[in-house]
Design a protein that fits this description.
Elements: H1 4-17, E1 27-30, H2 37-46, E2 50-56, H3 72-84, E3 90-96, H4 103-115, E4 120-125, H5 133-137, H6 145-161, E5 165-168, E6 171-173, H7 180-186, E7 199-202, E8 205-209, H8 213-221, E9 227-232, H9 235-246, E10 253-254, H10 255-262, H11 266-278, E11 281-284, E12 287-290, H12 292-296, H13 298-305
Helix pairs in contact: 1-2, 4-6, 9-10
């Protein structure tokens, strides 16, 4: 939605105030209907070097249900425009477990996107968050849990066959092209909040900015930081978060972190032993990792580690 000249102004302001690493990853998220070759080329000239396209599906009967404004042809054209504009690092978002999405329609979306040869692929299962319209009103045609699991495995197999690394629960990348941005979160590193409703993490403090745009701008114009909420994490919280975030990555976490969390908790120690026996948690060198099967049940495991 951002005009190219505004994008350039923002990036110029960042360069004036911060030291950027050479080749720093600068990503713009785009919906297929909102891009053109000219706009993307102007983004590229401004310093953007990575594009993430919110495709979600290549099924023209499902996209309107999601409220998407593009069709499958428009998604393919948007990817081509990104290539024509000079982007050699393009990510595509897909969703599985969607209404009326069976194994065949999912496989066609997956194979269609993989045939474009993107550098990165993100795939998320549909969740009905509290407060969303679908959570409140319900939605028809949701696939059964077993079908959703099979869609997950179909993607994992197809991506592996194309040489993608399944480096995080919901993310696949060609070697050396993991999302640097997202890995900051999963490694519990620091990041700054910029913009209405944005969240940041510095030291042991997590904070968020005010969401209403008018109040956000007025606060800045008054010379104050637009902070809304903040919390200081305890050591126990920090350890739990490092575990559950780090285990999202295929690299896993140091075994010492897990040992520290388990110390003195015999019930948790027994559960972890059971996870190893079931093949959902494994040791790899000095790290512990979730297996592909472990990724599938990760939410249930993470509750135990918090």
């Amino acid at each position: 939605m951002l005009a190219a000249e505004d994008m350039a102004a923002i990036l110029d302001a960042v360069r004036q105030r911060f030291t950027l690493e050479p080749g720093a990853e600068i990503t713009v998220e785009c919906n297929p209907e909102s891009v053109s070759r000219e706009k993307l080329a102007a983004y590229r000239a401004a310093g953007v070097n990575r594009v993430s396209l919110g495709v979600q599906s290549l099924d023209d009967s499902i996209l309107p249900v999601l409220g998407r404004l593009h069709d499958a042809g428009g998604a393919r054209r948007a990817f081509g425009e990104a290539r024509a504009a000079g982007f050699d690092n393009v990510s595509v978002d897909l969703m599985y477990g969607l209404p009326k999405q069976d194994g065949g329609t999912w496989a066609r979306s997956v194979e269609g996107v993989l045939a474009w040869e993107p550098e990165h692929l993100s795939a998320y299962g549909l969740t009905l968050d509290a407060g969303s319209v679908w959570a409140a009103t319900g939605v028809e045609g949701l696939p059964a849990e077993g079908a959703v699991v099979e869609q997950y495995w179909a993607l994992a197999r197809a991506a592996a066959a194309r040489g993608f690394e399944h480096y995080e629960i919901s993310n696949y990348a060609r070697p050396g092209l993991r999302s640097r941005h997202n890995q900051i979160y999963w490694r519990a590193a620091e990041y700054l909040a910029c913009g209405p409703g944005a969240c940041g993490f510095v030291g042991d403090v997590r904070y968020s900015n005010v969401k209403p745009v008018v109040r956000y701008c007025a606060t800045l114009e008054d010379g104050a930081l637009p902070l809304d909420t903040s919390e200081r994490l305890t050591e126990r919280q920090r350890l739990g978060e490092r575990l559950i975030l780090g285990l999202r990555l295929a690299d896993g976490v140091p075994r010492a972190w897990l040992d520290e969390r388990v110390a003195g908790d015999t019930a948790l120690a027994r559960r972890i032993a059971a996870w190893r026996e079931r093949g959902i948690l494994a040791d790899r060198g000095d790290n512990v990792v979730l297996t592909e099967a472990g990724f599938l049940v990760s939410d249930g495991l993470f509750v135990e580690l918090v």
